[in-house]
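input
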Amino acid sequence: MSGNRKRVKLPEGNIVRGLFRLARGDVGGMREFGNTTEAFSASIAPLLAFPLVSAVLFGLTGHWLLAVVMLLSRVCGVLLQPVITELAARYLASRATWLITSTALNWSIWLLIPLTLIGGLVSSGLVSLGIDGRYAVIGSLVGSFVYLLWIQCLIMRTGLRLTWLFAVPIVIGMNILILAVCLEPFLVHPSLMALIVHPGVK
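output
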């Protein structure tokens, strides 16, 4: 026997492995996402499905018009990312890799789940050290979002072969625009949040 241990290799295109590698700053994780329309469709489908389901559930409470408005704003927010990424890739002559860049950006959104859980643990630890609970929660949330922005900048920089000088403002501007579109229904209808929390109120 040669003495070499057999290693179990994960199949190519493992999304979890790609996200884990990117979270560590390993740009090699980009190869896990695929540069095809099929990979892109698989990444954006759940981002479109969740707003649809939540809109239907909200509409069943009797607020169908508001549900449609919320659905349209969230769908537009989801679609803004690939549009901006494709435009940036076209302008910067990197169109050959815009699909894999957009696909990785779509999947990166799901990192908010473990980041939020970790942030909750961190905030609890800070509170136990005597730090005010509000500041601990705000600090952990800000840290989570900043870390996610860093990962997205890493994806944009690697995927479109940019410098940090170009990647950072593109990602920040893109997220500000997406946030503005998604929050627009709440600005137009100030009591929308109250209706979501207490859907029985007319």
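quick obs: The chain has a mean pLDDT of 85.
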